[in-house]
Amino acid sequence: MKKIIYLLLALPSLALAQTKNVVSADRVYAKGGMNRQYEKALTAHVQKYHKGDWAWRVYTVESGPESGAYHIVEGPMSWDGLDKRGDLGAAHQNDYNNTVLPFTNTDRGYTTYSTFREDLSTTALGNYSDKIVINHVYIKPGYSDEVEDVLKKLKKAWEAGGQTIAVYESSSSGAPQYAIVTRYKQGLKERETGFRKPMKDRYNTANGEGSWTAYQQSLKNMVDHSWSEMLFFHPELSSK
Fold first, then answer.
1. CB 109 within 8 A of CB 34
2. Fold for the domain defined by 2-113
3. Which of 65, 75, 168, 222 gives 143 a disulfide partner, CB atoms 3.0 to 4.6 angstroms apart?
4. How is the chain split into domains, by residue range?
5. pLDDT tens per residue across span 153-178
6. Is 74 helix (H, G, I), strand (E, B) or coil?
């Protein structure tokens, strides 16, 4: 009986420790003129080694300062799972080094880790779409609470417009950043003027008249800088 009681008490902490809300993202560039060779090698490697927790979703960056890159997302996973991942074994490493790396521009690219913030998002982590926009928002030190408050107010406006938004918080990956991902479930027509009510109107309705002006002022105080980009998903390059 004591063992059963102990197990029941331990269940909440075990569940917390195994929450799969962590994703890694690699920004990778192919060597000049070798995109076709890179994609062929990447596809073969992904199908052989990246399943389950280590599945890859591969996007191409279509606009912004990093256009031309491949955006490779692994996960979701738990931190404990990531800790135990290792390099997926010698066979995996040898295959990557011998087949994919020869076509990779190793002078560019980087890796980031982020946690999915369900409380700030309007959709589930796994409710993906083929066309997305990522707004990278870098906040000034000391403004974490204020930024989260603003994101919760933005969430109300996103929900009012039926927008599918996933919010990720970077973790030990450079300057503090929130990645606000707009998932276009209906395609790029969602970007058309008039498809939704203006954001300003929705924000004021959801948070009170004049709140949009306060929001704009808060951005000037809290945000160091930001940039955005459009990405397209490529199922043929991704795990199946």
1. no
2. Alpha-Beta Plaits (3.30.70)
3. 222
4. 2-113, 115-232
5. 999 999 999 999 999 999 999 999 99
6. strand
